[in-house]
Automatic annotation (TrEMBL):
Pfam families for the chain: LRR_14 (PF23598), NB-ARC (PF00931), Rx_N (PF18052), WHD_DRP (PF23559)
Entry keyword annotation includes Nucleotide-binding: yes
GO MF term set: ADP binding
Superkingdom of origin organism: Eukaryota
Species this chain originates from: Juglans regia (English walnut)
Lineage, broadest ranks: Eukaryota, Viridiplantae, Streptophyta, Embryophyta, Tracheophyta
Protein name as annotated: Disease resistance protein RPM1-like
Domain Disease resistance protein winged helix: 414-486
Length: 670
């Protein structure tokens, strides 16, 4: 049995490497529907392998129930060899091998030999790529709202100021209007007449530097130097840079590089743009703060962070689009409330406001039509031709992420819309989920913080603030439309499933389950071996029958996050969850932890903050892997105008570090 498990474990490692390559190809639009279906089957096979391995480890753990944990660690090899094979696991392994063989044969039959080449419906070389941002280059004046003062300020910066060459980087999330603003600056009459030559270059994620340099040369020379234009096709990069540099040395120029993703681009192309003291200007638009910083080479260079439209300006833009041909551009009274809800979902993102407003302009102006769009926005973003460009543009940022950050970003799909989370909670979850890999000389929490900062610098995660007891605390969230998009992506990858009332898309599968509606039979609709992480949000009640079924059915859970859930007890069966490494009961009514928590030998986080728990069982000294123990107790029943913060009694020798009896671990805001 051990040999069989090792064999499928090795197969799993190979599959994971393949799926990483697929993710990279998908970002370039290289996957057809046939290939996507096949990849989905490969991914499901990987999940089945993980299930069997975890089930086998659980079987081993149950076998050694009379051995001490330390002895188990020392003798695990001998136990594995002596363990009687579990017939059910052996059968599952045979089925997995058959399934993998069939998947491999299917790939050969239909030409799914790699993500780069193939034939038939799986061929990738027939993909036609479209730049969904092209509409930003041709935005009508009536669709431009809220940038007037910024445009005037930047026009002044372009045509006045220092004589040295200056760079301005416009930074902001996708769809916020960077390209539109840059284009309006570029086409302003005073800018056109001020410079000897102007160049507009769209860079994008996948760029060819030689082609970009040739495009720059063609725009600069136009028909003035026909001989040079004829020679461009035979010039290499170095020659092109030298040619451009020589020509621009005596010119006043403005160059726009739109949609820059990589810092390496500027490090090379800047050599074609001489610092000639002719008042030349360079405009760069990017979603990445890192790119903006890398282009700032002097104190006079600017980084302009674009902000979402104010609620007032967003409403003005929406009404212009939705009611452009009717009601004199004003919203009818019966649609005001729904329209405000739709605008709020856009969170000041001009791209979304224009697209959704344009779609609604074609609809009948009745509340029923407005409500349909509001309630089905997620599916409309995927399927409605008027809105797919919005999803595609926003998805570019996801596809540009390195593999290790994609899981971190997708994790925000677990939380409800508009939900803000503290960094410490996010770090703990990322770590126990296995998303954070250690780095020499750094704690895992420090690496997790670097990942969060990278997502912020890419304008994918927003910083929000909350006031708590006269303190301002940072929390983190994502834009509502990004949330809609990653919900779809997480479902497609079986990364996470969200269960809400009246959700017909729920299929019971998913590595993570986020429940927003606790129906009596909810547990019966879920594949128990699929789920590894369980979250509860916005629930008014939690039937005890749910808790009983939960701990009886879900044997392979690794994360249980009951924060803010309406529960008042944890059954002793929690101790059977051998794989559990995160248990949060924060802000619940649980009073007593069962002694069986001492059997959770993989537990890394135990959070009983803001609960009535006043003493932790002595059995938790067995939890050798415990990294975070968070506990304190509020006594809100005392007759005083002030609450009482009391200690939680614990015992020494807990986890790796240990603690003195009677101490308090953790603190507010954790």
């Amino acid at each position: 049995m051990q040999r069989e498990v090792v064999g499928i474990r090795d197969e799993l490692e190979s599959i994971k490497c393949f799926l990483k390559d697929v993710e990279a190809s998908e970002g370039k639009g290289d996957l057809h529907d046939g290939l996507k279906t096949w990849v989905k089957q490969v991914r499901e096979a990987a999940f089945h392998i993980e299930d069997v391995i975890d089930e086998y480890i659980l079987h081993v753990a149950q076998y050694r129930h009379q051995h001490s944990f330390v002895a188990f660690l020392n003798k695990i090899g001998r136990i594995l060899t002596k363990l009687k094979p579990c017939h059910g696991i052996a059968t599952k392994i045979r089925h997995i091998k058959i399934s993998i063989r069939e998947i491999r044969e299917r790939s050969e039959r239909y030409g799914f030999t790699s993500t780069q080449q193939g034939s038939g419906c799986g061929a990738t070389n027939a993909v036609t790529w479209h730049d969904y941002r092209v509409g930003s280059l041709f935005t009508e004046e009536g669709e431009v709202v809220g940038i007037e003062s910024t445009r005037n300020e930047l026009v002044s910066w372009l045509i006045r100021g220092e004589a040295r060459r200056l760079v301005i980087s416009m930074v902001g999330m996708g769809g916020i209007g960077k390209t539109t603003l840059a284009k309006k600056l570029y086409e302003t009459e005073s800018v056109e007449g001020h410079f000897d030559c102007r160049v507009w270059i769209t860079v994008s994620q996948s760029y060819n530097l030689q082609k970009i340099l040739k495009a720059m040369a063609k725009q600069i020379y136009q028909e003035k130097e026909t001989t040079v234009l004829m020679e461009l096709n035979i010039m290499d990069e170095i020659t092109l840079i030298s040619q451009l540099r020589h020509y621009l040395l005596q010119k006043s120029y403005v160059v726009v590089f739109d949609d820059v993703w990589k810092t390496e681009f500027w490090e090379v192309v800047k050599h074609a743009l001489p610092c000639n003291n002719g008042g030349s200007r360079i405009i760069i638009t990017t979603r990445s703060h890192h790119v903006g910083v890398s282009c700032k080479e002097s104190p006079s260079d600017l980084i302009h962070n674009l902000q979402p439209l104010s609620q007032k300006k967003a409403w003005e833009l929406f009404c212009r689009k939705a009611f452009q041909l009717e009601f004199q551009g004003k919203c009818p009274r019966e649609l005001v409330r729904l329209s405000h809800e739709i605008v709020r979902k856009c969170e000041g993102l001009p791209l979304a406001i224009v697209a959704i407003g344009g779609l609604l302009s074609t609809k009948e102006k009745v509340p029923l039509e407005w409500r349909k769009l509001h309630d089905s926005l997620s599916s409309e973003l995927e399927s409605n031709p008027h809105l797919t460009s919005v999803a595609k543009i926003l998805c570019l940022s996801y596809h540009d992420l390195p593999c290790y950050l994609k899981s971190c970003f997708l994790y925000f799909s677990v939380f409800p819309e508009d939900y803000s989370i503290t960094d410490s909670r996010l770090f703990r979850l990322w770590i126990v989920e296995g998303f954070i890999e250690g780095k020499k000389g750094k704690q895992l929490e420090q690496v997790a913080e670097e990942c969060l900062m990278e997502l912020i610098h890419r304008n994918l995660v927003q910083v929000s603030f909350r006031d708590l007891d006269y303190e301002v605390r940072r929390k983190y969230r994502i834009h509502d439309l990004l949330h809609e998009i990653i919900l779809s992506k997480a479902g497609e990858l079986n990364f996470c499933q969200v269960l809400e009332a009246d959700d017909s898309s729920f299929n019971g599968k998913g590595r993570r389950l986020s429940i927003h509606d606790a129906r009596q039979n909810v547990v019966d609709t879920i594949e128990p071996f699929q789920v590894r992480s369980l979250f509860l949000f916005n629930l008014n009640e939690m039937p005890r029958s749910f808790m009983v079924k939960l701990f009886k059915k879900f044997k392979l859970l690794k994360v249980l996050d009951f924060e803010d859930a309406p529960i008042d007890y944890i059954p002793k069966e929690v101790g059977n969850l051998f794989h559990l490494n995160h248990l949060s009961l924060r802000n619940t009514k649980v009073k007593i932890l069962p002694k069986s928590v001492g059997r959770l030998q993989n537990l890394q986080t135990l959070n009983v903050m803001e609960t009535p728990v006043r003493e932790l069982p002595i059995e938790i000294f067995k939890l050798y892997k415990l990294r975070h123990l968070l506990a304190h107790y509020y006594d809100l029943g005392i007759k005083s105008s002030l609450y009482s913060l009391q200690g939680v009694k614990i015992h020494n020798r807990i986890g790796k570090g240990g603690s003195d009896e009677g101490s308090v671990l953790g603190g507010r805001g954790k």
